[in-house]
Amino acid sequence: MKKLILLLSIVCLAACNSLDNFPKLEHSAKLSFRDAYENDTISFQLKNPLMCPISVRLVKDATYPDLATLFGHVTLRKQQDTIIKIHYPDVESTVKPKYSIEYGDLQRKINKSSIGLPFPKGKQYKIIQGFNNSFSHNKITSKYAIDFDLSIGDTIVSVDDGYVVGLIDKYKDHGTSQQWRDNDRSNYLTVYHPDSGLYSQYVHLNYEGAIVELGDYVEKGQPIAISGMTGFTTVEHLHFNVRIPSATNGLISTEYTFDNAVDASTLKKGDVVRNQNE
User: What mean pLDDT comes out for the span 89-105?
Assistant: First the structure.
């Protein structure tokens, strides 16, 4: 019997000099999956260490194209582990399965409600870029993002109660070239909100700008990070996004409303937004 241990990073795409300055490792949550082959059967031992559901598939391999079909689509609840056994007599014991891992449970109903603003009460900031902007808010993963003109060192707060499920804060540099656009290395933080099923993301954090840790429970309005200027960007700012799981594109951007009936879709470049939450 041969066991294969695979360490896989969940990488949340963030919304930018020299590429040689990129850190060699991405600092995000790692999953340890074990695959064992014995008596014509493959056993997949899957464990989710995160405080949110994840969806797991096998990447189709040309040598064993039907193995991915037999594996199917597996959803693991928060911190759940499971074993899947597949009878597959023709597979070699040296096979190395590759996994496709995404945040979320596709069967989970999304219950949207208003969220707080991503900066402290009493603070106000100008909109740099709103929904569906052609510069960088033009993809299915970012079309409903908003850029606020937070300065380096300003405080970012969580927009709702939830768990920190994604965190990278070891990048130092930024750039504006096509290389940076295609290979973005932004510091970011992702929070899963179990009551709604939404994921909020806070991007371009300062180097070591997270003030919470992976797995932490955070409350609405709690400081979670320090704003910065990392990754693909032309100015210091906070890129804020809300996302939901999809069947084919991982987490995609979704519309939302802020508290006090502030419809995020109406916010345009130059608008000033003040956090008036009690």
Answer: 81
